[in-house]
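Why this split exists: single-chain examples teach little about how molecules sit against one another. For that reason, every record in the complexes split bundles all components of an assembly together and asks for one structure covering all of them. Below is a record exactly as it appears in the raw files.
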Amino acid sequence: MSETRKILILDDEPIVGERLKTLLAKDGHYVEVFTDPRLAIQRLEEKTFDIIVSDIRMRELDGIQVMNQVFQKSKKTKVILITGYATLELARESLTKGAFDFIAKPFKSNEIRTTIGRALEALDNEESPRSRTTSM
Amino acid sequence: MIKALVSVYPDLASVIAMNYACRLSKMFAMEIQPIFVKEPEEGDKAPAVGWVRQTWENGLLDVEQEAMNKLIESERSVYVKLTSLQVIYGDRDEAILDNLLQGGYDLFVEGSISRFEKSVLLQRTCSRLYRKLPCSVMIARNLIDLNKILVIIGDAAPASTLLPALMKLFKGSNVRFDLLYSKIIDSGPLEPIYSEPEIFNEADEIFHGTGWKPEKKLALQGSPRDLATQIEEYSLVATSLPSEPERHNGLLELLSDTPSPILFCRQRIGML
Amino acid sequence: MKILAALDSSSQSTFVATEVARLAANTWADVTLLGIEPEAVNTDQRPFAKGDRKAEDHPLIKSLRENRNILQNYFGPDNSPYNHSVVTSELVEVENGFWEDLQVCRGSIKQLNTRLRTGNPAKAVLTEARNSQCDLIVLGNSISIFGGVLARSVKKILLEADTSVLMVAESKNPRRIVACLDHDNISQPSLELINQMVTLYDADLEIVGLTTQDTLANNVDSKMGEIIKYYAANKIKALVRFVEENRLATFAAQAAQDNLVAIWMGKKSLLSRIFHPRSVEKLLSGTESSLLILR
């Protein structure tokens, strides 16, 4: 699908958002970056995004709480959780609660690009059931 | 209320010292006075005397003072009992000593980052300031939450002077602590000393009726490095300042190897 | 995160696989297990041929499969991100107007690849690391894997890899991660890797600052201040220690006895000048613990 996808990136380390924004904007996506989870939540109230990439450990609000808020508004949005302090329990909790993927830092740009590609494919499949590959 | 003088300088050690002192003030009532002593550098030759000199000195101080005011303001937002920065131009140790003596302080706090080179702590404890200190001194080395103190007692750290000074500082704080009697050897395995040292009975007598009681009493023998490893989980190590530190002082070697802040307890002169 | 585990057929490689499994269990990383078969003297003697059933009996292949099982079994039957247990039907349009209903076995969230390379072991690992764009190479330390194919290549891999390298020691949990950083140029991925190690081993962190004649560079003070306040806010016990530049190699060798020493050796690193190959050799020969080279 060629339509521009809307992606929100949330990480309290500014460098992570900046890096991802450059990369994803180059791929033709519309990207907004936040370092404060409360501001991100406010923005999510106003606008629906296709994909959220969020850090898990943040000071005011954690990424899993952000994901819960996202799902209250839109069940279709794909949430990719990233973390610098990964544990098995956190990975399980993330996926059980509906995250599309769980990525531990550090990661290369291609890894996040591939994951976003998979999330977009999943969105395409959900939105147009007559596409080339359909789950039965 | 405990009166503490905290030495600051625009460096990492001072960030740690200020933050640590402020954390302590959450445990017991403490008034914190930060002090910055600007020492004349080699090239700093005062251009004149009187008001000209004073203006020149003030100009030199402005830049650093601004940096330290920022540091103090960031702490003041959380810890309110922090008075304004006192700025002095002169010899650092002399100025601090004067202030400690005249200001009736109970505690002097300074930052000193742990070093691989053990001689640094020894040099500091040999300094004129440390030899003449009229009160206890806290060397803040890392930002560690104060959970439990290790009190090292022994021949060089007599219970009779160390423990009352410690109890005065931490009065009303409900701080948890263990007692350690250590025999420091050059080499050999770390092992317990089985016969209970007499100094533990002396400590019990001092604690009697005060509500103070160690959670554990440890008696260990080992090299400075092994002992340091054994005690590194404590968030503060309290002991006495060696009166005449020798070149090879086992206790100072041990303390050099621990990452925890160090408290050298001394009863305030005039309060004995 | 992408991890490349360098393995050979020696029995010691199983502990490397176990350590990779631990790391993978925390991070749910994409993992490549790379088996190395050293260069054959006679080029006609290719160790594996296409369709060769005897290859199944090759010690390296057996060992790699064992190691893959270690990794898969580490998670338990239902929790592995590498399991291909979900069988689904997918309707695929083969050509215009022609469809096929395929039963496919997907469902793995993360990739677990098992690959083999022949040739010079160090070269093989470095090539695979570059091609796979991994974030971390894991291999056994030269004492633990003594006698194995990779033992003599450890130093070259540590020094020449473009990415971070974790050299793991057998069954030793570090008490502390001692991070020797060059605070001017430390890369974000390196800091992130340190955080993952602190979490994995539930260890304290000690940040080592370099001094020259007792003085820190001006901006290092403020940078380290930011770093320790960051860790304090994140409830991670981060200690600071200063070491004179000319004593760093000695300090690291001593610290490596009980701790995981992490050394930032990126292209712009001051430490790569201090840790010249001979110092690294000294560090490798003296340590039975793990070592992390950050890039």
